[in-house]
Every structure is written in C-alpha cells, then in structure tokens.
Amino acid sequence: GSDGQVTEMDMNQYLWGVVAAEMPASFPLEALKAQAVAARTYAVRHMTAFGGSGCSGADICTDSGCCQSYRSPEQLKKKFGGDARQYMDKLRQAVYETEGEYAAYKGEPIEALYHSSAGGRTEDAQNVFSAALPYLVGVDSPGEETAGKYAAEVRVSLGEFTNRVNKKWPAAKLKKNRLGEQVKVVSRYDSGRVKELKLNKVTVSGRELRRLFDLNSANFTLSIGEKVTIRTKGYGHGVGMSQYGANAMAKEGYSCEEILEHYFTGAQVVQWAG
After folding, report:
1. Half-sphere exposure (Cβ direction) of 231: Cα atoms closer than 13 Å
2. What is the pTM of this model?
3. Which of the chain's ends, N or C, has fewer CB atoms near its CB within 10 Å?
4. 233 phi and psi, to 5 degrees?
C-alpha cells in the first residue's frame, strides 16, 4: 500500500481497484474487461510465483510509476459519488466475467502495456523501450478522437525554448532569433511519432524532447512563429493497448478478447489454471 505496508489481497478486489484507477468506469463493459485482463496479466507476469521479479518485498505494488495505480473501495465511493453503486457493479462484473483470464504469447504471460490514446497508430516497443517484443508492434487504433487529451498544444516563448534546450544540450547552441532554420524534424517512425530531430548542432530523439517539454506524446509537430508551438497527437507512450481505442472497439461491438488480440499481435487470452 501507499504506506509501504505489504497487504495480502484477493486478486479480484485488487483488480477492480486497478481497473477503476486506470480506465474511466463509463467505458463499455468489454473495454473494462479488456483492461481487467491486461491488469491481471500484468499482475500474473510480475508475481514471483511466475518467476517475475516482484517488487520490494511484495509481488506487486500500487505505485503507478512502478506497477499499476490502485484505488481502495473507500476512495472509489468518493470518486464516483452518486454513480458509485452502478460503477462499482460494472467494475466487479468486468473482473468476475474475466476471472482467471490473462493474455499470453506462446504460453507466457505478456508484458501487457497500455496507454490512454495512440494518436491513430500504436508504436513498436523497440522504438520506446529499446527492446523488441513480437506482440508489441504498431497497429492501427481508430476512433480515439473523443479522448480528452487526444490533441493538445504547448506554446513556449522563443527565449524559453532556446534556454531550455541549450541548458539540457549545451552543444546545441540554439539562437532564439534563428530557431526557424535551426529546429527540424529529421525522421519519424511509421506510427507518426518523431524519431529524431535536429536542434542546430545536436540530434535528439523525439522521446527526449517529449520529456524536456512534458509533452503528451512523441507524436508532435513544431511550428515556429512568435512562439514555438508544439502540437501533439495521442497521450502516453503509445505501446500496447490504447484505452480510448479499446473504448471505440467495444462501442462497435468487439469483445474483450478481440480488443486484446488486436493490440497485442499474436497473443491469446487464456485461462489461468492456478
């Protein structure tokens, strides 16, 4: 827990707390079920019983930077207010209807990564985490435009852009009155995300610029006028399942299994014989 205590917890109770923390409860049931299976897969893969590395002293922790976010029943009642009963029932249903199911590739639990929205196409794992996994390759992810942070823009003054870049990469030697010619996107991945960009005398990855300016995604365009405007598409690292893509697929009548098998190429939803 957040207080560093290790708690023995029923897998189902843990899962609906995770699903509630990670995906809007207003999403269709099949999307919530896909999230439940992804979360269970994540937990199963990291459980020491499966040879996972676990976390400090526990199979899994509730720090979202490390494992997955989790909300307690009390926190959820507060979060959902008047809709609490309806949403809690729906979350329980998502977990119980998928009981024991996880996503596997060649019999092993997969690294079930997910993100909010892909910006139209998900990304190959190797372009983000430098390790390639056959089931984490880019696929189309239509219908995400309803996502709150799907399209966003960050505007910074020419001076601030110059200072921030030069502080991080002193060799760049950007000049604020010459940004128009000094800043260029050099290459993009198939997903549209920026692979490399040239900042005068240095070349950096799209991911590095994303971190420096805290952008929603590495799928961005830069325009330089009176200010530097960076427009992003999608929200998150873009690898694995897009949650708003799952929402769109569920609305079109796709099942939890079809959603997962679309986003995790070659993976199958299997039953845990635990």
Report:
1. 6
2. 0.85
3. C
4. -125, 130
